[in-house]
Specification:
The chain is of the alpha+beta class. It folds into two domains: about 1-65 and about 210-330, no CATH class; about 75-210, no CATH class. The protein has helices at about 1-5, 10-30, 35-45, 85-95, 110, 115-135, 165-175, 260-275, 285-290, and strands spanning about 65-70, 75-85, 140, 145-155, 185-190, 200-205, 240-245, 250-260, 280, 295-300, 305-315, 320-330. It has a twelve-stranded antiparallel β-sheet with strand order 3-4-5-6-2-1-7-8-12-11-10-9, with helices on both faces. The protein is globular. The protein starts with a helix and ends with a strand.
């Protein structure tokens, strides 16, 4: 029942997690293509990450050892620490730690070498972005009890944004999707504890394997990542989001699908197939679900594992969205 406790976290925690979830993908989209319906779905599904974010972010134990989070096949890491400093001082520290890149401009001579028409138009538009970045390359938000800092740390600190070398790297990354080879997305979240006056510091950064194409569907309609072993998948559904996270005692996974079949059809499918796969229902949980008329929310257990399945209809598209979370004990 540990997973149920996490699912019932307080609203303030859910808000913080939503911020973290959104920013995991934010850096990859800065230099990516314009949003479309597929990418919008990815952003929408990221909100479901609130159901599997681990409890350690909000306990009293710091996590100086980086914890791995894999989103659609892209690796990110995070640590959690504490400080007596106020939020402004903490954010100033990280602003100095990750200085801005030198900024230039993509001139006409460079643009003439670009054959792809869409890419060329994108680079013309980028000149406006570069002009803005000459003044500020950091994203910062500060409140009395909350602070947020975001930056892109390029692997080559001397690389001038807008230079021919930068354009070559950008053009290659647009083709391969491998933006992780250009730089690392870095995020810092500072949370003031009014009771102790300590400030919780959450550091999150992307790995060099970051690939934008993992957030675009393959030929089968699936996003990057993988399904949860031993958990069936409704026929014809496509994977929108896959998150894996290794914690101290557990492995946590979340996968979200979109498909057809109706809410009732999907519920009947999982009730039947989960039992066939060796999963068992929890009698206490089933009683609560019936009392609250939440038949679209299911909870199953198997040796060392807990699994929740949430089925709902997208009111905009009429498609069925199924979100599955899985928690597995490391020593099971």
């Amino acid at each position: 029942m540990r997973l149920i406790k996490i699912l019932s976290c307080r609203p303030v925690k859910a808000f913080i997690i939503c911020i973290i979830s959104f920013t995991i993908i934010w850096f990859g989209m800065v230099f990516g293509p314009d949003e479309n319906s597929v990418e919008a779905k990815v952003f929408e599904r990221l909100t479901f990450y609130t159901k599997s974010m681990p409890q350690y972010l909000f306990d009293d134990q710091i996590t100086s050892k980086p914890r791995k989070v894999i989103v659609n096949g892209n690796t990110s890491y995070l640590t959690v620490g504490k400080s007596k400093d106020d939020i402004s001082k903490i954010l100033n520290f990280y602003a100095k730690r990750y200085p801005p890149q030198p900024v230039g401009k993509i001139d006409d001579a460079i643009l003439k070498k670009v054959n792809d028409r869409k890419l060329k138009q994108c680079m013309i538009n980028m000149n406006e972005v570069l002009e803005c970045m000459s003044e500020s390359q950091h994203f910062r938000m500060e409140r009395d009890d909350f602070g947020f800092f975001g930056a892109i740390e390029f692997h080559n600190a001397d690389l001038t944004l807008g230079s021919e070398k930068f354009v070559e790297k950008y053009e290659k990354a647009m083709t391969t999707g491998e933006f992780g080879k250009i730089g690392t997305g870095r995020i810092v979240i500072a949370l003031k504890n009014p009771g102790t006056q300590d400030t919780r510091i959450i550091n999150l950064w992307t790995d060099r394997d970051f690939n934008l194409k993992n957030f675009l569907p393959d030929t089968k309609g699936d996003m990057g990542g993988k399904d949860i072993p031993g958990v069936p998948r409704y026929p014809g559904s496509r994977r929108l989001l896959a998150i894996e996270q290794e914690n101290t005692l557990t492995y946590d996974t979340l996968v979200s699908y979109e498909g057809g079949g109706g809410v009732v059809g999907n519920i009947l499918f999982y009730h039947s197939r989960m039992e066939d796969a060796g999963w068992k229902t929890d009698l206490i949980f089933e009683k609560v679900i019936l009392e609250q008329s939440m038949e679209n929310f299911m909870f199953y257990t198997r040796k060392g594992r807990e699994c929740t399945i949430h089925i709902q209809e997208d009111e905009n598209t009429g498609k069925i969205v199924t979100t599955i979370t899985n928690r597995e004990m490391k020593n099971s």
